[in-house]
Structure formats: structure tokens, C-alpha cells
Design brief:
Elements lengths: L1 E5 L2 E5 L1 H6 L2 E7 L4 E7 L2 H4 L5 E9 L8 E5 L17 E6 L11 E10 L9 E10 L1
Parallel strand pairs: 7-9
Antiparallel strand pairs: 1-2, 3-4, 5-6, 5-8, 6-7, 8-9
Length: 137
């Protein structure tokens, strides 16, 4: 959930639902010499960049060096973007402020961090939470 303060009232927004509003268009990448489906973010989502949001989801055991960086998925591993056919809007990169203990595959986590959107770097996901902290597991 994303919680925003508006005129003294909290408004809760489902981060995964907001990510799902992202459209994807085929764009040619000169460096790779081929077309890739790249995101076109909604104005509402762009307005959340740099704001602290919370996400709940499943830890994906993707082989990434270190333990200050993880992939969080809306769905368990068997249904995730990489294995089960879900879209790229169902995963987020989470970069923690500090190293975390090991997580188990499909462990349900709640994290919060500052939203960054990525529509250019093919080495990273489209939705990134930076300066993140673990809220619960």
C-alpha cells in the first residue's frame, strides 16, 4: 500500500495496482540491435517518484550477489514474471539501506522505500524501491 497525506487525511493506494496501469510499447534499442517492450508510465505513477511507498509480496530467489538487493513479486515464484507468465508490472527491485538476513523462497515480506521508475536500463526492473527497509516478514 502507498499511503499519502492529503490535507491531513491518509489515502491508501495499492502499489501493485498502480504498477499494473503501466503500458508497454516496442522500442528499438541501438546497443542491443533489437526491439524491447519498454514501459510508458502513467502520470499518477510518475507523481509517486521519490515518495515512500510500501509493498507486500513474495521474495524471489533470483541469484543476485549480496543481500541488500532483492526482487519482490506480487505472486509466488510459480506464478511470477520469470516463471509463471505474469507481467513485468508484478515485480519490483528492492534496494535496502543495509544488508538483510537471508530470506526463504516465497517468503512474504512487507517493505517500504522510495519509488524510482526505470524505462531505459535493461539490466534493471521497471519499478525500484530505493533506501528500503524491511517492515515485516
Amino acid at each position: 500500500m502507498i499511503t499519502l497525506q492529503l490535507f491531513g487525511q491518509e489515502k491508501k493506494i495499492d502499489g501493485w495496482l498502480e504498477f499494473a496501469k503501466t503500458k508497454f510499447e516496442a522500442k528499438y534499442n541501438e546497443k542491443q540491435g533489437e526491439y524491447f517492450m519498454l514501459p510508458v508510465f502513467s502520470a499518477d505513477l510518475k507523481g509517486l517518484v521519490g515518495k515512500e511507498i510500501s509493498l507486500e509480496g513474495y521474495y524471489l530467489p533470483i541469484d543476485i550477489e549480496g543481500n541488500a538487493y532483492i526482487i519482490l513479486s506480487k505472486f509466488p515464484f510459480s506464478q511470477c514474471f520469470f516463471c509463471g507468465g505474469a507481467g513485468p508490472e508484478s515485480i519490483a527491485e528492492v534496494v535496502f539501506k543495509s544488508s538483510q538476513s537471508k530470506f526463504e523462497a516465497d517468503q512474504y515480506l512487507r517493505v517500504k522505500g522510495k519509488l524510482k521508475l526505470n524505462d531505459k536500463d535493461l539490466e534493471h526492473g521497471n519499478f525500484i524501491l530505493e533506501e528500503s527497509v524491511l517492515v515485516s516478514k
